[in-house]
Amino acid sequence: LVPGAIPTRLDHFLCYKVHSSSRFAWRGVPLEDQFMEERATVKKPRMLCNPVSKNGEGIQSPREHLVCYVTRGHGRASRHGIVVRNRFGVTSMTAWKTRHLCVPSTTTVL
Questions:
Q1: Does some domain include residue 41?
Q2: Which pTM value belongs to this model?
Q3: Would you say residue 19 lies in a domain?
């Protein structure tokens, strides 16, 4: 079983490890995706993901970034077999534990 066409309207992202200079208040958020539904604790920012031009393909949305936060799920982790298709090929993977919540963000370079 091979997934459908590769998304073309989504930029590639290059992610950087970050450290927040201000204290981040943990908060609980309900989350639901194709694998599970749970209430997770969002703990702290961990990565900033910038749109990147890979192989000279350009950037479609240069102002759309992602900030990824460490999460701790409160649901039971179950394993899900998936097949992923992207520019690097087709790969079988197993997903089982949530780690990060990535949210659309804007940035200002200081």
A1: yes
A2: 0.88
A3: yes
